[in-house]
Write a structure and sequence with these properties.
This protein has about 190 residues and is mainly alpha-helical. The chain has two domains: about 110 residues, no CATH class; about 40 residues, no CATH class. It contains seven helices and two strands, in the order H-E-E-H-H-H-H-H-H. A two-stranded antiparallel ribbon has the order 1-2. A hairpin with a 4-residue loop joins strand 1 and strand 2. Helix 1 packs parallel to helix 3 and helix 3 crosses helix 4. The longest helix has 24 residues.
Length: about 190
């Protein structure tokens, strides 16, 4: 993550607080989204039924039915940007809690589309129904685990598995000295 040089400390703090909010509470919004296995995209439930084209730029969005865009829905001007930012995060926390509590009230949350069982090992995300079931079981306390599932398996540099990952592999200079190594390098590292 990078910031423009002209961003003040308060703005950077707000962005980092927002990022932390998403990391800590973003899962609570999962019941409002559906996973499309054909496009591997997540859609808000309000957009999943319609066939509206996906907008790629914010400038393409129309916020009102009459085709106009408004820069703000607030009637009163913002006098304190710090207070406004704090209110944004507080409101987001309330909405996240309300979203999950509403989903937890359902007797059974619909499972929706799922990845094929043969491709399940590639899944690195939680389904909305799994998040709701975990919330019913543990509340706001997310069950932590040491097991990481999915194709991406991060390693710590201090662990032996990471330190010895290249054991048995010839060095680049050794590859360049052998005929087969040069052919392999030419094949795999050819420039267009």
């Amino acid at each position: 993550m990078s910031f423009p040089y002209f961003a003040d400390d308060a703005e950077v703090d707000y962005i980092l607080d927002s990022l932390n909010f998403v990391a800590d509470h973003g899962w609570k919004f999962l019941p409002q989204y559906e996973f499309d296995i054909h496009s591997a995209a997540w859609h808000h439930t309000s957009r999943s039924a319609d066939n509206l084209p996906t907008k790629s730029c914010l400038s393409e969005l129309q916020f009102f039915g009459d085709g106009t865009n408004s820069t703000s829905t607030s009637e009163t001007p913002i006098h304190s940007i710090a207070a406004h930012r704090r209110e944004n995060l507080e409101q987001a926390a309330l909405q996240a809690d309300a979203c999950m509590k509403e989903a937890a009230l359902l007797d059974s949350f619909p499972e929706g589309q799922k990845v094929l069982k043969s491709h399940e090992w590639l899944r690195w995300f939680v389904y909305p129904y799994e998040a709701v079931a975990d919330y019913k079981k543990n509340g706001d306390k997310v069950a932590l685990t040491d097991k990481i599932t999915g194709p991406c398996q991060p390693q710590l540099y201090g662990e032996d598995a990471m330190n010895h990952i290249w054991d048995g592999m010839p060095s680049m200079s050794k590859l360049k000295r052998s005929r087969m190594g040069r052919l392999m390098l030419r094949h795999y590292m050819s420039t267009p």
